[in-house]
Amino acid sequence: MPHCRELKLGDVWRTCNKIRAAIFRMGINLFEYFAPLDPHKNCLISESQFISVINGQLRATIGLSEQEVAELADYFRVPDGRIYYTQLCEVIHDSVPEFTDNAPLVTGLEWEDPMHSNRLSISEERRLNVLITKIASLVNMRKLILRPYFQDYELVSKNTGTVTIAHFARILAHLNILLSADDFSLLVKKYLKDSYTLNYIAFLAAIDKVVNYLNEHNILDLSGDIMSIFPGRILNAELPKLPRPEIGKISGAKLFGKQNIFHPALNDPKKMEHLLTIMSLIQDHVSRNRLRV
SUPFAM superfamilies this protein is in (predicted)? Predict the structure, then answer.
């Protein structure tokens, strides 16, 4: 039955742990006890030879009961009835796994955002968007695949999603993506991680996002470059006309008043007449028009 088999395997494993604790404490090598009984190096011995070693020579050291020895022999028995003793020795002596040969299960990105990037000011973000768009147009026009260049370094340095600043600059220079010092500093400021590496995963994701946007909105020409004129690039500054019922019906002078093209300081100053002259003019006007004062 499966349930009984599971219990038996648990008992065998417990017995192996008991043997392992004893021989490690005493510094015993099981191969030295079984090897003389196998002159042909077949890795197999008879059951009687196996019991003579476990329950004979090593009985005082290990201290197994007859039931434990029988279960151990049943577990390592091959179909012809002999005991596969080398397998027992490997289980006992080679029980410590080589962790250096295994790939890490935890990379460090499980609790960190793989698309992590630093926050910039509004003006820097706008400049970065233009820079990423220009790099994306170059990548799309030349049909470049950036990811293998970063992954080759990652295999050597054992990093996960990051490269050094110097290697990032070397990759861009190798691909003939020439940037100014200010543009490169802006990329470093955006994607810097752990003070000395760059998150190339986030950088490539931004490039792919821009390329996909350009393709979806038909902004690229046949060569893959951004079109000089595309929908949305020309700004439409034409304002809608407002209703102006006064046009054509009211004169401009009446609407805006009399307009002078010269500064008032340029006008001639008014002349002041003598008081007697003014009185004589008034008398002449009254007598001529026969006005009553």
Answer: EF-hand
Structural domains in the chain (count): 2
The structure tokens 């009553």 sit at 292
Q: Are strands 197-199 and 162-164 parallel, antiparallel or unpaired?
A: antiparallel
**Cα 198 from Cα 187, distance rounded (Å):** 9
Q: What residues pair up with 72 in beta bridges, in sequence order?
A: none
Quote the pTM value. 0.43
Domain range for 78: 2-99
Through-space distance between the first and last CA atoms of the chain, rounded to whole angstroms: 144
Q: Is 293 among the domain residues?
A: no
Look-up of token digits 């179909």: 79
Structure tokens belonging to residue 36? 């003389």
Q: What is the pLDDT of residues 220-230, one digit of tens each?
A: 777 667 766 55
Sort 130 into a burial class: Cβ within 10 Å, 0-12 / 13-18 / 19+. Answer: exposed
What are the backbone dihedrals phi and psi of residue 197, each rounded to the nearest 5 degrees, phi first?
-125, 165
| Bridge partners (DSSP) listed for residue 162 | 199
Give me 254's structure tokens. Answer: 């009446």
Q: Is 240 helix (H, G, I), strand (E, B) or coil?
A: coil
pLDDT per position as a tens digit, 134-147 = 899 888 888 888 88
Contact 73, 47 (CB under 8 A): yes
> What does DSSP say about strands 192-193 and 162-164: parallel, antiparallel, or unpaired?
unpaired
Tokens of 186: 């802006």
Q: Which residue, 184, 216, 248, sits at the end of a domain? A: 216
